[in-house]
Amino acid sequence: MESEQPRTVEQIRGLVSWIGAGRKLTQTGKVTLADARALVTLLETGDTIDPAIGDRTFKTKSSQELHHLNLLVEWAKAARLLRVVGGRLVPVKKNARVLEDPERILDALFEALPRIGEAVLPSGWLGSIFAEEYPAGLRVLLTSLYAADDLVPEQELQAAVWDKVSGFYVLDDLPEDRLRLLRQSNDRDVDRVLATLLGLGSVQRVGGAVALTSRGRQAMARLRGEARPGDPVYQLRIELADVEQPAVWRRVQVPAGFRLDRLHLVIQAAMGWQNCHLHAFDVKGVNYGHPSSELDFVDETAAALDALVKEGEFLDYTYDFGDSWEHRILVERQVAAGAGHHYPLCVDGAGACPPEDCGGAPGYDDLKQTLSGPSHPEREDLLRWLGLETAADFDPIRFDLHRTNQRLRALDW
């Protein structure tokens, strides 16, 4: 039951308590085998020291070979509950109070997940691309779970991670059997990470499907920097300029302290853009954009929304400097974040997002006329370009609030 403390939390508390004032490490910085023998039993890690296979006994040479114990030690260090000082493993005194609250331990361990890749996915005879690109793979795994309203088949999660991490490499020339082994090792490591999350109480498994628990959702919200109950939230009305019949607009709520680079991603997801062009903000005559841009923008990653605008004020956002999609953004009001909500949150809206690269507002007007009026000589070419079967498949009025919020939850910060 979720009211019980996750096994990993109890093991970490037991580990730090057992360390006491400190324990001497080996020259390689690992727990000694003598201490490992005691900890494997005390913490019930499930590791086997000196495993016997058939008639042979394989001598354990280092505690690093004990996967679960090594993971707990490295995880406690990454969560700043333990540290190494002068060749000794000692508790971090300033974080001692964290150990008194299981929920704070959970938060600390979840926040440390991106930093424990080598302990979760140790190198072996067949390493995976996931192990090499662990932070990126972990993000897409957690984000896929967070965006889902229900259980997600594990095969879908494996595919999402593979698509993400394999994209960093050129694999087209690999033999089919080698590619198959790489995919299998990747799927194996996805299962290892899910097992780690299961021990943390962050996910639940039902058959071959997985979902975040309420604890996992809360931890993900904090990891993403979402507003907590009572935090200030700005309600924004984002309207696409010069687009009518129908107008295209969204009403979204975002943490008041969001940086402009995050607001950019919110606008993309809420409106339905594909984020494949340049963008810029204009706030009271000052232009903000990507810090590496050659357009001399002020760094949007260092600009917080609530430091620039207040309730009742406007800012402008331009997407795609060729088509020039202008968005007028009004800070309608400031509200307090409510319990049980995830921010950013879309609460209302209307109109479908125009197709990318259709020529801006004038081109979109022409597109709508071509598809809505009598048969036009360019209609078939336009339908092929849009990937549609018939003109009836194009609906400029369409707006799906649920799907919009799924996109917002799927944002990868």
How are the secondary structure elements laid out?
Elements: H1 7-19, E1 23-24, H2 33-43, E2 52-53, E3 56-57, H3 67-78, E4 82-85, E5 88-91, H4 102-112, H5 117-120, H6 129-132, H7 134-147, E6 152-153, H8 154-166, H9 176-199, E7 203-206, E8 209-212, H10 214-223, E9 232-240, E10 249-255, H11 260-271, E11 279-283, E12 286-289, E13 298-299, H12 305-308, E14 314-319, E15 325-336, E16 345-350, H13 360-372, H14 379-386, H15 401-409
Low-pLDDT runs: none
Helix content: 25-40%
CATH class of the largest domain: Alpha Beta
Q: What structural class is derived from the secondary structure elements?
A: alpha+beta
CATH topology of the largest domain: Structural Genomics Hypothetical 15.5 Kd Protein In mrcA-pckA Intergenic Region, Chain A
Main sheet, how many strands, which sense, barrel? 8 strands, mixed
In DSSP terms (H or I, runs of 4 or more residues), the helix count works out at 15
Average of pLDDT: 93
Q: Widest sheet: strand order?
A: 13-12-11-14-15-9-10-16
CATH superfamily of the largest domain: MM3350-like
Shape designation: globular
Radius of gyration: 26 Å
CATH architecture of the largest domain: Roll
The number of distinct β-strands equals 16
Distance between the termini: 31 Å
Q: Report the portion of residues in β strands.
A: 15-25%
Number of domains: 3
